[in-house]
Amino acid sequence: MPTTHHPLGIDIGGSGIKGAPVDLAAGSFARDRVRCETPKVSTPDVVADVVAKIAESFAEVTGNSPIGVTMPAVVTHGVVRSAANIDPAWIGTDVRRLLGERLGRPVTVVNDADAAGVGEMHFGAARNADGLVLVSTLGTGIGSALIYNGVLIPNSELGHLEIDGRDAEQRAASSVKDDKNLTWQEWAERLQRYFSHVENLFWPDLIVVGGGVSRKAEKFLPLLHLRAPIVAAQLQNSAGIIGAAWLARHHAESRRTAGT
Ligand code: BGC
Questions:
Q1: pTM exceeding the 0.70 threshold for the entire prediction
Q2: DSSP for residue 225
Q3: Paired strand residues for 210
Q4: Which residue ranges have their beta carbon within 6 Å of ligand 1?
């Protein structure tokens, strides 16, 4: 039996549901990540079964530690409020309660990009950054996390800014690059429009670009010209799971201190 139990991070995405116990002293996975396909019908109850299976597979390393879960949606007080790229059945679901009851452990639910931002802030490219940091995740959609002097301002949803009459993520997400077979140069022009607009609204001190495509950052970041430094995420696709586990532990500690 390990003496320290690690919190578990789970990332619920459109194509996969991934989880791993997180060693928060090291800022990395304590065991290899497990990935399950997201079921075709991905309503809350069906997904809860998959999450329970993943949690079960790590029972020995995580004990009764808290669980942090990310969703590609606006999440307030554990309740999902939007569904741009997930089943609309999630809207209004109290995921904190659903999973908390199912797993018998405290659950923190957080927007996926916010979780990635927290991961990058503690262990990655935004570590020790002062002022305003924008973490932007480029994938099926565009996620965003705004962090000011180390404090997350949740649910910024900057992928849905209206730019040139369009929802920004429908022009500039990395899925659009793939679907339309855009060259790096063509996609970078769309990203340039997006990030200049965001930069003119928020004046971040640092922009961190995450999502799977950040593995190929050298292909497109040098094509972008912005006021703020723009750098690749360091934790890449682990950032969300690590950030969610960090938040779960942090919330558990705050509850303990408050005696609730
Ligand atoms: C959703 C966000 C999410 C982002 C990345 C957007 O479509 O509205 O909540 O963070 O996709 O998954």
A1: yes
A2: -
A3: 137
A4: 72-74, 82, 84-85, 111-113, 137, 139, 141, 143, 157, 159-160, 169
